[in-house]
Amino acid sequence: MMNCREYVYLLTSEQLPQSDTLTRMQSVGHRYLCRNCRAFTLQHQALDQALQVSRQGLIESLHPQRGLVVAPEGTPAPTAGSAPSDAPPSGP
Amino acid sequence: MLRFARLHLQPDEEAEDAVQDASVVLWAQAARLAQADDPQRYVFGVLKNKITDRLRQRYRHSHEELPAEDALDAVLFKENGHWAEGMGPAQVHNPERLMAQGQFLERVDWCVQKLPPKIARVFSMKEFLECEAAEICDVLGLSKADYWQCLSRARKQLQLCLHQQGLENQR
User: Nearest Cβ partner of B43 from A55, A62, A78?
Assistant: First the structure.
């Protein structure tokens, strides 16, 4: 039978969704029986939400029209159609 | 950009260099950036690449030891693997109420800064740079088992930190 330490490790290392069916069933059973692990799971989800909000805020702070992207000193002005050499791999 | 880079790179000069590298690329790609559907995502993508390049150079071949997992687990759990007395999170603050009051994010931010450096790097690459597990392992030279351990340790330590803060605020 799964104990709290094993359940918490699977949850926090994010291995639970990829675990086999038996492990996932054991984790559901454990969560049903253990109020501490139910509470921990709720806190875990709340932390996820908070991090998502925080991440979104950070990305929004990178908006180029807010003057946060500035030309480095001595850099020549770009020309339209200049070939980018270092675009993000899955970038827009 | 600098604030974002500082989350991942220390000392400040290293973060400044990454931002400068990213700025050069963005300046060269200004026309493309102007046409991007989501400029913030575009800037994020370029900056992320510059940060991970520097992290890769620095940490890929480093052999920094992980803090012992047992020490944290010994605080949280009894020998039989169940929650230690008073460590179960049942009586902890209501996160939804705290989120509404804007306190939760502040507490999370404070607690993230208290994580050991290696664990904080894995956690911030996962949560703030949106890197996949394989990329994090490649950049930091970690095995999958080390990655899982770091992630688990970070989450548990954050929960413990939030728990302790919640209790302090109830006093």
Answer: A62
